[in-house]
Design a protein that fits this description.
By secondary structure, the chain is α+β, with helices and mostly antiparallel strands. It is about 35% helix and about 30% strand.
Length: about 120
């Protein structure tokens, strides 16, 4: 049990993982964003996630211009978390409040953008 606590305490926070993911989306680094989703070891999964992220955030009307994390919460089992944020899109006419789900995998937080 102590070893499990030591591993999870060294893992980046959900807020940091979500921020890295969103920074990659904002910079249109879709492969790097997909790697934040835990699919970096499997090329087919990485390609699929990259394509889904590019479709979801690569068009002019849905490109992330800026975001602000407004809160984060780790579930009691410490296996999942949510990070809430406000996103401003490049069209400057739309701002959304988003709840991004995360889970732990191999001792680090990964983003689950489509759940």
């Amino acid at each position: 049990m102590f070893a499990g606590l030591a591993v999870s305490s060294c893992a980046p926070s959900p807020k940091r993982a979500a921020t890295k993911f969103m920074d990659n989306l904002k910079d249109k680094k879709f492969v790097a964003a997909a790697e934040c989703c835990g699919v970096s070891k499997d090329k087919a999964s990485l390609d699929l996630m990259t394509a889904m992220l590019e479709e979801g955030y690569g068009m002019q009307d849905n490109t992330v211009r800026a975001f602000v994390v407004t809160g984060d919460s780790i579930f009691p089992d410490r296996q999942g978390a949510v990070v809430t944020m406000n996103i401003l899109y490049t069209d400057m006419h739309r701002e959304d409040s988003v709840v991004l789900k995360l889970r732990t995998m191999n001792g680090r937080w990964i983003v689950q953008p489509f759940q």
